[in-house]
Amino acid sequence: MRKRLPYIIIFVLIFAVETCIALFVHDDFVRPYVGDVIVMWAVYCLAQIILGGKFGSYKVAVGSLVFAFIVEILQKFHIADVMGVENPILRTVIGTSYATADLLCYFVGTVFIFAGIFLYRKFRNGI
Fold first, then answer.
1. Is residue 66 a contact partner of residue 114, using CB atoms and an 8 Å limit?
2. What letter does residue 11 receive in the DSSP assignment?
3. Model pLDDT for residues 92-106, shown as the tens digit of each residue
4. Which of 28, 40, 76, 118 is the most exposed place for a label (fewest CB within 10 A)?
5. Cα 63 vs. chain centroid, distance in angstroms?
6. pLDDT confidence of residue 17
């Protein structure tokens, strides 16, 4: 549990920020781009919570990126409609529209994760 607690706290904070963006921000930059960069941090933290440190941080980051790419590609094939998902919250989580720019945002979010892992290890071990 000690390994998971920081990820739980960060996940909850990111989830709150993402929820605020979804509900209150209706612009052409923060919601479509910054939100997609930040969502990768949430996916990474959730993966770390579930996996509990069983895999290396960089591997979890890459796995999170692959997962996000798969979900985005499934959106291209209207997976929510194919599955018959009618619940609006679940449709929002799954996503209903494909955008190539989202793939780039997910990649950028993962680059930030890599940078965060690198910096954390540098400072933890003393520069």
1. no
2. H
3. 888 889 999 999 999
4. 28
5. 11
6. 97
